[in-house]
Write a structure and sequence with these properties.
324 residues, 7-stranded antiparallel β-sheet
Amino acid sequence: MKVRLHTRPTLMAVSLAFWLGHAPFAAAAPVLGASTSASSNGSVGVESTYSYAGYQNSSTYAWGGSYDSASGYAFSSSSGAYAVSSYATGYTGSGTAFASFLNTVVNTSGVAQHYTLSFKIYGGSLSTSAYATLDPDEYLRSSYSASIKVNSQQVWFSSAGIDNTGGSTTSTKSGTDLNSGDDGSDGYYSWGSSYVTVDLGILDPGESLDVLAELSDSALSNVGVYSYSGSGGYDGYGGYGGYNYCGYGEVATLAAATADTGLVEGCVTSKGNASAFYGDPSEIDADPLAFAVTANAVPEPGSLALLAMAGGAAALARRRRRDS
């Protein structure tokens, strides 16, 4: 089997929807995958999955207490859409998401074909948002990883991660850089949508190849809580009936926030959260170029020789006209 792989790099992840190209070939229905996990402060979430023809999703949520939670969500669709999303906040939180697409292309023509893959990178972001100073052993981390393999040979790869440990933020990138203008050193990294082209090589009649796309992200947290005075509020007449305005998911506390916790009267919430996302947030995109395979017939050696002879004859005729 003759498969010569050459990659033209750029960008991450893959969605799905084959488009028949310039020569006959068959593409079997894609095999879709989606899985997630989540745990928080000792609580492990239960994965929920849903699927029908051409679509699969997975979601997991874990609640570990008033300030502790984590989640993961993933889906893949033969319409051309996909997404992976993870979130974690509070103590020992972990959220992960994974999606995959396995596609088999078969050359059903009577001649060798040259195949090309075009796939779409949807926008996304990584974030490690800290709202208060982290202790040395506290951390927020987020990352993604994506790859394309042809017959188990990796032809494209991209990954990035952000780590905020003890208030010190570092970022890493590997493979294709989705946004060279953003180094993620401020705890946030994002990228926009774009397209990538990969040369899949040549298949002789009857030969096939597998194209596998694997996408994942994760969010990890291990942070405590902090307190602050709620915005506005009312102390009440004579000290009775007072309240504070606290944000969504934040808890108002009184003297129960004792000195040994380091908290003060007011609002209490987690010191921060980690999140990762990329994909189609609406699950409705059906871009025909999201995962497009095209084929072009490879000229036979005899045809090339005839073309060369014709070119030579044309050049000779032009030379004779000039001489005359």
